[in-house]
Amino acid sequence: MQNESIAILGGVGAARAKLLADAGLETLEDLANFLPKEYRDLTHATPIAQLRVGESALVRVIVIESARDRRAKGLTVTRCVVSDGSETIPCVWYNQPWMSKQMRSGAEVSLYGKAVREKSRIILQNPSVENRAGIAPVYRTIQGVPGKVLTRLIGEAVARLDGAWADELPLSVRERHALCEKNVAMRGVHFPANWEELKTARRRLAFDELFLYQVALSLMRSQGKKGIVIPADDEAADDFWAHLPFAPTGAQRRVLSEIVRDLSSEHPMARLVQGDVGSGKTAVAFGALYLAVKAGYQGALMAPTEILARQHFESAQAILEPLGIRCGLILGSMGQKAHREAHEAMANGDWQVAIGTHALISQKVEFQNLGLVVVDEQHRFGVRQRSALSDKGDSPNVLVMSATPIPRTLSLILYGDLDVSVIDELPPGRRPVGTRIVPEAKRADMYNFLRSEVREGRQVYVVCPLIEESEAMEARPAEELYEDLRTQALSDLRIALVHGRMKPADKDSVIAQFQAGEVDVLVSTTVIEVGVNVPNASVMVIENADRFGLAQLHQLRGRVGRGSDQAWCFLMAEPNERLRTMTKTNDGFVIAQKDMELRGPGELLGTRQSGAMLDGAMADLALLSETHEAARELLHHPESEETRAAIRLAEKRFRRRMENAGMN
Fold first, then answer.
1. How far from 216 is each of 252, 605, 632, 653, CA to CA, in Å?
2. Greater model confidence, 42 or 469
């Protein structure tokens, strides 16, 4: 029954089935496993007078001023005023003109939305009209499929499959960890009667995912292939450090020493190097590439963006080429002739180190003797992409790098198939970035500070969480803010805009202008989170800072403070405990730990990692350790039928990842 096509459901024609299939939803089981990303508490209404800025709530109101539409800067803005007797409040919707038909004077409606501060008043931004009650699931948006339709289809799939879920988790594990039955969990996660039922259901499904993932990772580690042995020792590493124009930190020396031991082992290296922005991960990676080339092998370094790939290539020219190592660059934007020449240089060994983007994993790329693969910003790539580069050689050693700090507990889950090294020391003399929370009332003062920084010859980033206004996200869009700064607030400065929907050449052109000092203020979405290095930029302004996780705020803050000047990061938001963490420390690992405690582990097993989706709320810190220990305990008894059953289930659930790891 689980494998029945979604076409049996009402309202699913060929066009809608195609949209759902593109999102990975083809069967009833797929729909039922499409878990809510969040829940709305519609169990009771909150009086308008008791609404708190930054919090979402249900209000039952009467429209006292009919909604009106107006066009502003390319957007349709719909506004009305509502009241519940305790207070009145304006409502605003962006690009939702149909709301004006529902919000007629005298209409009684239930609205669910977030209270935000707009200038000197509080408003409800993009509230939804709710006809539901209780605890209502909210699902991730699928392009072209209305949210109400998707919710209905999921509900029908869950109802059809009720009672049909086989409980494959070993009984001893379920009893030992007090887990509810699978059918109870599937009902409870989509249609919870109360918060306790929801908590029980989510714990069961999260346990399943994490436990089986731990079993799969154990299998990957124990059944790996033999790899390329690269003769290396600490003396060769010291030789590399001696040729650099700067002295390495103790942490850099320690991590390269760990890599030396991996390279000289008969098992292929699979190591993650973590470290804050500026901690020197790239120098360590170049040390590993130096050792590989010195032993007669080729190396490859893959970066997620062309900007970052070019920066790595320029660094390699400065560090590796003086050591006699021939380096080359391959990018998707290169012409056919350049690609052909690059392919020849890699195949015949002229390039000892190849640096590039996804272009490195195209079918036509071949290496003469690939011994080491380096993947930068690991979280930007999927396991499949990492494996595609590894497949260019015969089980080469793999080194992945991430500037996104991950607490040790979480790294066991995300990167359990990798050994983890941490560069926990910054080069001497680097100043911490001063961080301040700036409420809306202080915006004008902040703009004056930006002007003074620009007068001193420095530059500024302004980052927004999205490009243009949408109902999915109540935040100030980059395009709107860019127009405001360019024409009004900072019209005396040189302003530019960059975002992910721009053509790569246009995006690179704007960033190049900023790097060249031809732009004073760069308004951007998070495309600048990785790979933009402008030492002259001294200020980072983050709009709607409360919409970002702490770890991402820390990543963005790392874009400044790269020069000798004091750098600043301004978080545009109302003060709260979470954001105050950013003002107290510049230690990425402390911030990541706090972020995980406050928000949960995030999309631990998101599509980038395993193809399975696990919402952040599905796991807590205790459960990470609990499932890790449960998997270890079970695997201590490899001959038991329960262990064999768990292994079969793990192989089925994570087959693709295990195939990528070479367990065919």
1. 31, 13, 11, 9
2. 42
- Phi, psi dihedral angles at 614 (to 5 degrees): -135, 110
Q: What is the pLDDT of residues 69-120, one digit of tens each?
A: 888 767 788 999 999 999 999 999 988 888 988 999 999 999 999 999 887 7
Q: Quick one: what percent of the chain has pLDDT higher than 70?
A: 87
What tokens appear for 495 in the block? Answer: 């302003």
SS3 59: strand
Distance of CA 29 to the CA centre of its chain: 26
The answer to whether 271 touches 372, Cβ cutoff 8 Å, is no
pLDDT in tens, 30-74: 999 999 988 999 999 999 999 988 889 999 999 999 988 888 767
**What is the pLDDT averaged over residues 494-515?**
84
d(CA 512, CA 503): 14
The amino acid occupying position 283 is A
CB count within 10 Å of CB 324 equals 10
pLDDT > 90 in the chain, percent: 38
Q: Which of 288-297, 427-436, 590-599 has the lowest mean pLDDT?
A: 590-599
Give the separation between CA 16 and CA 13, rounded to whole angstroms: 5
For 557-586, give one letter per residue: b (16+ CB within 10 A) or e.
Answer: bbbbbbeebebbbbbbbbeeebbebbeeeb
Residue 416 burial class via C-beta count within 10 angstroms: exposed 0-12, middle 13-18, buried 19 and up: middle
Antiparallel, parallel or unpaired: β 568-572 and 537-542: parallel
Mean pLDDT computed over 315-325: 92
Rounded Cα distance, 476 and 543, in Å: 7
State the chain's mean pLDDT as an integer: 83
Judge contact between 109 and 168, C-beta under 8 A. Answer: no
Rounded CA gap, 650 and 588, in Å?
Answer: 33
The C-alpha atoms of residue 517 and residue 534 are separated, in whole angstroms, by 9
Strands across the sheet containing 495-498: 434-438, 568-572, 537-542, 459-463, 521-524, 495-498
The H-or-E segment that residue 57 falls in is strand 56-72
| Residue 465: pLDDT over 60 | yes
125/118 Cα distance (integer angstroms) = 9
User: Is the distance from CB of 351 to CB of 326 less than 8 angstroms?
Assistant: yes
Which residue, 315, 321, 373, 387, is CA-closest to 351? 321
**Local structure of 649: helix, strand or coil:** helix
pLDDT at 583: 92
DSSP letter for 268, please: P
Rounded mean pLDDT, 190-200: 94
Spatial neighbors of 358 by CB under 8 A, at least 6 apart, are 302, 332, 385
Q: Is pLDDT at 661 greater than 60 in this prediction?
A: no
Which residues are bridge partners to 603 per DSSP?
A: none
Q: How far is CA 205 from CA 4, 76, 164, 167, 187, in A?
A: 22, 41, 16, 11, 11
d(CA 459, CA 79): 37
Cβ atoms of residues 92 and 79 within 8 Å: yes
Burial code (b: 16+ CB inside 10 Å, e: under 16) for 356-378 equals bbbbbbeeebebeebbbbbbbbb
Angle at 346 between CA 345 and CA 347, to 5 degrees: 95
